[in-house]
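>> received
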Amino acid sequence: MPLTFGTDGVRGDARSELTPEFVEALGRAAAGVLGAERFAVGRDTRVSGPPLADALRRGVRSAGGAAVDLGVVPTPAVARWCEDEKVAGAMVSASHNLWHDNGVKLFAPGGRKLSDEAQHEIEWQVGELLDDYSPAPAAGAGHSHGAAELHPAASGDGAGPVPETGSSRPVGTPPGDSAGDLARRRHVQAVAASLKGRDLAGLRIVVDAANGAACGSAPDCLRALRAEVETIHAEPDGYNINDGCGSLHPESLQAAVVSSRADAGLAFDGDADRVLAVDGRGTVVDGDQILAVCAIDRAQRGRLAGNAVVVTVMSNLGLRQAMAACGIDVVETPVGDRQVLEALEERGLVLGGEQSGHLIFRDLATTGDGLLTAVQLLDAVKRSGNSLHVVAAGAMTRLPQVLVGVPMPPAAAPADLDAALGPIAAAAENRLGDSGRVLVRPSGTEPLIRVMVEAADLEAARTEAAQLAARVEAVLSCR
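>> returned
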């Protein structure tokens, strides 16, 4: 059965599921559905990226389109390119996953995430194409229909040259300069310009680039804003992306911030569309806290349209309490940055995000941008005259939150699960009362049931989460 869209594109194991044949069909279907004669393709640093990006471009060309190679760039750089050039695009990345996974995130012309209707049409066409579609071999080489052959990727943040055949070179690209170079430069310049002449001089920042797409762009932007920058995990080899580093593993960043006496640390994920921060004491500042800081700062400056923010069901109860205390309304959506963006646009709002550090500043970008989020946070901290620790602690008090993943059997039906799991979650919420919150939901990216419990006391949250996970596991074992 072909892969389908999750909460953020298509994702799977590049050694078995996400094959060049599938990605080529996806490129052809996407180009047809989106009506895109021109297409931009970027990737992160994982070893399967080059062959899958090649396959995606072949698919676009087979549909009559022209595909430009942006090479290794952050996801928001692809989105900005699509906005500037008025073209569709794709990012070959599995975000925070390890090297053996990969995925494809698609952008409609203008840099927007796809609608449900567009995704469903692309899924249907991919299925039709895989039934009878024979991909054309790459020029001068045979083409494998199986999993990508994995070889070490070149390190660094450089993009390869724009292919001469079927490529689309934008007006204004300097001779000898690749489209990828221009895409990264545009992104860095736009993020720096968001401070409207202010800078980050006087701040010492440690950047954990997750051995991914942020390796060059993040340090370049922060240094352009006059911050002092130290980098760690910025030597990608194709296999070390997100491996014990980045936004899911900030431990080494915490140690580096404390040992270097830095003002803050920034932990990106593999494609740099999200970021978590670390304060000078080595404490992690998550996406909810970053959102609280930026929302309060904007509200005080009269720049929070609608005096409201958009959050997901996973956002901490402490964030909701903090926003209520400041008179800021909260709009809740299902998990996924696409859901957040839709709510922002429907209501004319400008700020929303997820606990993972995936924030959207709709007046500054078309999608989540880890670098933009980091710069907005640091700017608010610098203008406050206080440390990140003081600012984050003052913005909200984070309630203890315990997350447990329960493996889900392949045959489990979502409709059946909703009916079975709903009463279990409701009973747990009744036990916690107003002092806590419970969420039980299928993951959008992994075969798991996510169990989340918040309570005023950490031990109470742990106990309730363990009991709830056991109940869920018992239900699943009967399916």
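>> The longest strand covers residues 101-108.
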